[in-house]
Structure formats: structure tokens, C-alpha cells
Amino acid sequence: QNNDDDDKDESLQQVMVVLSAAVCTKYGKTLLSRQFVPMTRLRIEGLLAAFPKLIASEENVAQQHTFIETDNVRYVYQPVEDLYLLLITNRASNIMEDLNTLRLVAKLIPEYCHGNSEEAVSRNSFELIFALDEAISIGYKEHVSLQQIRTFTEMDSHEEKLQKIIMESKISETREAARRKADAIDKAKLEARRALDSKFGGGIGARDGFGSDSFQSGGGGDDDHHGGYGGHSSSHSARQTQKYDAAGYPIPQSSGSSSVGGGGASSSSSSSSRGGSSSNKKPVRGMSLGIKKKTTDDFFSKVVAEEGTMVRTGAAAAAVTPAAMVGAAAAGVGGGVTAMGDEMKHHVDVSVQESLSLQLERDGGVKKMEIKGEVHLTVVDPDQARCVVHMSRVLDKSDGFQVRLHPKIDKKAYAQSGCLALKDRSKPFPMGGDNTQTILRWRMVSTDESDIPFSVNFWPNSEDGQSVVSVEFTAERPGLVMRDVYIAIPCPSSAPPQVSSIDGEYTIQDRTLIWQIPEISEASDNGSLEFSCPEIDADDFFPLNISFTSPTTYADTTVEAVTHADDDSQAIDFKFSSSLTADKFVVV
Q: Fewer CB within 10 Å, N side or C side of the chain?
């Protein structure tokens, strides 16, 4: 084996210069090594392991050299703080050329590793290896500079950039063509629907209205009533025999066998007592459509099904038909019938949505607070797609908001008058619910306690082996109305907590006490909760998780009007909504 290694070294001395480049510590730990000739792992590990010993022997004889020669190879090295930069070459190589190569490689370490520490080299080892491949090729130093190596490793290609630009242009053109096609299809559907409205506007209601032939009421109403009553009393009995686990927490009981079974038995007995031939009859539905079908009604139903329009009568919902619409209007049916034309009442839908991310310290103070808001625009009528949205206020940095507009929105118009319009007003907004556009975004970051929705004062005490907890909330931001407030308090005690006083309601789920507050506003700006449980550590009550919804927002911006792009005096019917939700509200 030694003879074979000697033969390899002799052949390398004849044709190769740099055998390997490596970075190691002063204690002999190899961080990386790049070989430029075919070598076995055992061979290169042996050469690298011998280097620290040779350095120690050189220091003992007090020689000032930057290279060490052995019988077969030459070590050319340079100290770099706590590291050694090492080149292993053959003895026949030019020492001056090796030193030039070493100086070039030494410049690569701070350039690609961003430091000369062991951690920096280990973290950026692959980047450094790629740079070494550009500096040394087949054992010889390339005539390149540091700037050229940086360009080669970045692999910047003008042809690739050009190809990407062409591809993006094709994608944009395809999307624009698809948008135009979708607008044309939606407009055709709208015209067809209007044509059907004008064609079947009269006479259908008298023929196919809400009559006894259209909807048949079966005899199952009393059965359903008896079944529900049986389920109710069985459920009531189950609540009276509630069971608890070893920790004292209530065990959830399945309502399928008791309540449903009771209702089923009552219904069966009631049906059998009414007649002996009930088993031969087919079950009658509570509501069923008539047998006769009109061709025009079937076609109209298909159109309406595509549009997704629904009609509600009482507690039941059915697809809209011309007979249902006109017949209900003629008969004056109550229960809130929504005609298909009501969908077109509002041509534009504008919504303001905000989300809150807030972390409060348990001892007071705001750890992190962020508000993100968006304005969404949905155009329903294609004839009103070229529109301008007039906002009630302009959000800017003076109010603490970081505002971003859609690239196609006119920034000057918004800054001057709060108008949200396209830069090219001859072009329309995309139409349809699937093409809802986000035209304005804002962000607000604060650590001021006066900006939070409400504060939570959590005060646990230990009394006679019990943890007695007092919790209080206080509204902080004027004008903000919070509804459906839930405060989840972890309570991993051996027994369920006992609530002594509360403003609102509470439930216990999965060892968590959930405090339910209907509303927090200026009218109801304070409330408290007191409960006790077997003593646990105060840290076990945290974190508190809070959720709520609010129709008011921090930006406090609304839509004053929506007008046509060519004429501000031409108003467009619109619908506006706003909401604030707590995505993450915790007390830690």
C-alpha cells in the first residue's frame, strides 16, 4: 500500500501543483478541505492530521517559515487569527506561485464567510468551496481577481434575465386576456338574466306561485314535534345524572343514544297510533316540489344556479324560480323573501378589515402591538367597473399609520382628497366576487397602553390551600366597541374552579375557564371575575388567550361615496362594511 501511495505522489509531482486547499484550527481540527486531484479520503486525512505535528516541531526549533516540506509534499500555510489556511502542493511546484495562490485564497475567507471565526467558516463552507473552485482549477491557479470570482459565483446571466422578462410578459398578457374573457361571460350572463326577467315578468306567479300544488305539507310535523320533545326530556335527564372524573371535571356524555333514541321512540308510537296502514305508506317529506316542471323554469333555474342566488322563505331555503319570485310578490308572502334583483341593488362592495396582534405583560405594559388593515373592492355590475371610491379620511404617518397603495392606484389623488382610483381611469376594475381587489393596506405599531383595546388585571393569591384569582378588564381606547369577547384562562388544577362572582358568563372546557363577555365599550367599560381552585403555581394560569370582534376599526375610515370615473357627480350604489378581529391577543 505504501508503494502504491509513493507511486501516486510521484505521478502527481510530474503533472499537478496544488493538491488540496484546507482551513483548520490551531488545534488540528479540519473545518473544510477541497481536493483538486483524485485522492482517497484516507490519504488526505493522513496529510491533514500530520500538519499540526509539523507545526509544533517547527515552533520548537524557532524557524520563521510559512511552508513545511516533507519527503512527498509541501505545506504552504498562513495564520488567520485562530485558524490556519493551508495549501498542500507537491515539492516540484513553484513556491512563489504557491504563495500568490495562498494570498488569493486568504481574501476569499472574509469575503464569503463574513468573518475569520470557526463558526463563520463552518456556516459558509459551501460558498467558500465554490469560490475555491473558481480560484484553482485542476491544481493550477486561475488568472482571476476577487471581483471576477464574485461575478462567477453569482452566476448572473443577461440571457436568463431577458428570458424571465419575456416569460413574465407572456403571463401578464394571458391573465389580461382571461380577465377580458371572464368579464365578457359575466356580462352575457347578466344580459340573459335581465332578458328573462322582462320576458317572464307577468302571468307566471298566478300559474306557478306558492300554492298547494307547489309545496305539499306532509303529516310528519307532529311526529317531528314529538321526537324533539322526547329528545329534550332525555337530555334533561342526562344533565341531572351528570358524572365527573377523578379530578372533579364533568365527563362529556354522548347525546346520540339518549336524546335521539327517546325522540325516535315517541315518534314511532305516535305514528302507529294514528293508523294501521302507515307502514305501507311512503315517508312524506316536510316540503317537496310539485311534479310538473316548466321548460322555462328549468332553464331559468340553471342560470340562477350558476349565479348562486338563493331565496329564503321562513326557516327553509330553496333555489329561486320565476314562479317563486313573482308568486311570492303577488301573494305578499312574509318571512323575508329575497328576490334576485336585490343582489344587483349594490353595484360596488367596499369593505375595511383590520387584524390585531397584541402581547401584554402580566404585570402591565405592552410587549408588542401591531395593527394591519386592508380595503377590499368588489365590483358586481360591469357597467360600473370604472369607479372612484371616496374615503372619509387620508391615512398617513402623522396618525401613526404606514400606508401602501396598490401600484395601479393613483397616489396623488389619495394624498390630496382620499380618492381611490386607477391611474388610468379609462380602464375598469376587475369584476366579480372571485376578483376582489385589495387597493389599500396600512400598518400601525405601538407600545402605548392607551392604544390597546382593553387592559386585563390578573391577580392570583394563595389562601388556605386555595388559589383565589381576581380578574378585571378595563376599556382603554375610546370609541372602540368589542363584541363576543372571550378570555381563556388555563386552570390545570386537580378540581374545576369555583366561580364566586362574574360579569358575564363562563364555561369550562379542557381545564380552561372561558370568560364570555357580550360587549366592551364606553357604556360597559369595566367588569370583573372572581374564582378559586386548588392551589397551583401562578405561572400555570398563563398565557391568557383573548378573542373578540368589532365593527369599528383603529383607522376609523369609511366610504363617503362611490362615483363614476368620468363624472364625480354620478353616484354609484355601494355597500360598505368594516370589521376588526383579534388574530393574536395574549397576556404572558
A: N
| Alpha-carbon gap, residue 333 to 213, rounded angstroms | 16
Alpha-carbon distance 563 to 569, whole Å?
7
pLDDT per position as a tens digit, 220-262 = 444 444 343 333 433 344 344 555 555 455 565 544 443 333 3
Across 381-407, average pLDDT: 91
Q: Which of 332, 330, 334, 308 is nearest to 319 (CA)?
A: 308
C-alpha gyration radius of the chain: 39
Whole-angstrom distance, CA of residue 323 vs CA of residue 70: 103
CA-based torsion, 379, 385, 390, 395: positive or negative: positive
What global pTM score does this model have? Answer: 0.45
User: Helix %, strand %, coil % for the chain, to 5?
Assistant: 35, 30, 30
Distance between CA atoms of 290 and 434, rounded to whole angstroms? Answer: 35
Cα distances (angstroms) measured from residue 155 to each of 125, 130, 148: 18, 11, 11
Task: Give the tens place of pLDDT for each residue, 527-536.
Answer: 999 999 999 9
Q: Residue 481: what residue type?
A: V
**Would you state the cell numbers that stand for residue 294, as one nine-digit string?**
316548466
